[in-house]
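Backbone shape codes:
***
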Amino acid sequence: MIGLGARGMGLLRGIILHMEDVEVVAVCDLYEDRCEEAAGYVQETGTARPLVTTKYQEVVALPGLDAVVIGASWADHIHIAAACMEAGIYVASEVGGAYSVQECWKLVETYERTGVPCMIMENCCYGREELMVLNMVKQGVFGDIVHCAGGYHHDLREEIAYGIENRHYRLNNYIHRNCENYPTHELGPIAQILGINHGNRMVSLVSMSSKAKGMHEYVVRERGADSALAQTEFMQGDIVTTVIKCAHGETITITLDTTLPRYYSRGFTVRGTKGMYVEENHSIYIDGQHDEHHFDWKNQWGNADSFREQYEHPIWKKFISEGVKGGHGGMDWLVYSEFIECVKNGTDTPLDVYDMAAWMSISALSEESIALGGHPVAIPDFTNGKWMSR
């Protein structure tokens, strides 16, 4: 385990240490107290004390290591992943956005040279709603898919405002960058639906940002007008909207919305020629079935739960029968179970290095588009043409 902040520690305690076929042999973080805390949790399970280190290179150098879980800061994901692949170690990388297109190419080139799998641990791809909708798409329920939308609508003001105390890297990102900084929760499920990197790809984007006011107002109110952070200018706009064009004509809209007061939502929406799914009211609208409810969206056209018996995804049918467990409603357990099975069997991972590169690149590309006033920016083909037949 490399990176033991809130996410890394949560994974260790809530998922990894409960997997009977996993042994944690090393824990690593820049902060020694986090390492020691993690080592204590490992020893509480009755296993040997793991290697404790603040240098990820010492973890990568361990003989016989099967896999590494990367839960470090966004800026560290790709170079740690590359080092692991060079050492022949499977990589499970937590999510985030890239800082340059070049580092995404480095990720792909390292994989193609070493052949060592690297999986982006996008748990939302394993959400119950997302997988049921994917199943419905594959069965043609929504017809030809034309447009999808998603968002990271999550009030993070407290987390950002106390980033120094909590040793959280998000604060520096919100001070120094303005981009779609957390794209994969939105994009992951949509990429599965549109076959991105598997017969389709994202070709270009435009991104626009609102002004940045939410964090300043929050900091002044909660920390005082004389606090150091209140004198800081935040670069990150309160709302960032990115529109992506795909090779086969579909469009995707993703929205970053993390510094204004609001309820949590991922805004998952799928629009096709025969119907639509909308997460916001947990509803499905089918052409010819719900026509009389055109103006009745508040009461839901067709509650999505009524489609479960017919369209529940096989992954979730099995999960429910065995007993749902793990964080984020079970998504964490599913994504890590899938990864561990691939490590044990020596197989490729279902979410791979091409997905990781394409999804993470959106941060760097949106930053460029915003800086250019919403100018269109090309999205690289990280598969070098293999997307057409993968």
